[in-house]
Design goal:
Trna Endonuclease, Chain: A, domain 1; two-stranded antiparallel sheet; globular; 5 strands
């Protein structure tokens, strides 16, 4: 939510990801787990006259986080939703489902 009460499409889930990042930082500091946020594969083309960066996604991102806990690999996608009683599976892209299935198997 922004301070005006509405969340933009671009910023939805930012608070959730910040909470995950903080939690993962605590896990690492306490020697519990090492979980990293994966970078988004973006090709930077340059800056426009107002200093904004121009670029595009080079390829679809797989998942948001990966790491290790107690010798086991962890991979997961961070998703938030306005729904209180269900999670719409349309929020997860097919290439993400395929990647998670490969990591699980």
């Amino acid at each position: 939510m922004t301070r005006w009460g509405k969340s933009s499409f671009a910023n939805r889930g930012m608070a959730f990801e910040q909470l995950l990042d903080y939690t993962n930082q605590l896990y690492e500091q306490r020697g519990i787990a090492v979980i990293n946020k994966r970078p988004i594969p973006v090709k930077i083309l340059g800056r426009n006259t107002r200093g904004m960066v121009n670029g595009y996604l080079e390829k679809p991102s797989t998942v948001d986080y990966d790491g290790t806990y107690a010798g086991h690999s962890i991979v997961f996608e961070a998703k938030s939703t306005k729904e209180l009683t269900r999670f719409p599976l349309d929020n997860v892209h097919e290439h993400q489902v395929e990647y998670l299935a490969k990591c699980h198997g």
